[in-house]
Design goal:
Elements (H helix, E strand, L loop, with lengths): L1 H5 L5 H6 L2 H11 L3 H14 L3 H9 L2 H11 L3 H16 L4 H6 L2 H7 L6 H22 L5 H9 L1
InterPro entries: ARM-like (IPR011989), ARM-type_fold (IPR016024)
Amino acid sequence: MCSSFCYHADSHQEFVLQGGVRLVIQMYSKSKVEHVRLCCLLCLLYLAESGSSQRAIAQEKGVKMLLTACENETHIDLIVNALKALIPFACSDEFRPQLGMDGALDTFSAFMFSDQLQLQQLGIYLLQNLLEPWVRVHGGGGHFLLTVFLVLT
């Protein structure tokens, strides 16, 4: 039910104000049912569209939970949705440092060696956004990570 509520952007603010982010993170953490965990990840994916919701997710340690989901889940749909939910955070100057401190570099780079093309693409995209300021400062074109990926494979 939370994921269908979060699907509509006009309900995000109320969902956050009512403690929905904390509820979704707790449900994800306590549930052993794959479908429930998928719905929780979808909630965070939908909520990550707006800046205020992103701050609420970060405040409730949702970014760390998403990174953990990327590392621990076995079903590809759960991993893909967790990675997609992290995209706005990797693109944001506000949250990029926290991602780096939480180990996102290791998590994202591990997907470069996945057998699944979709996971490889998401991993590279997230790495590119995470490292974008570094590439900008130290030089290198926008194809830096693609070149690294091609050399490693």
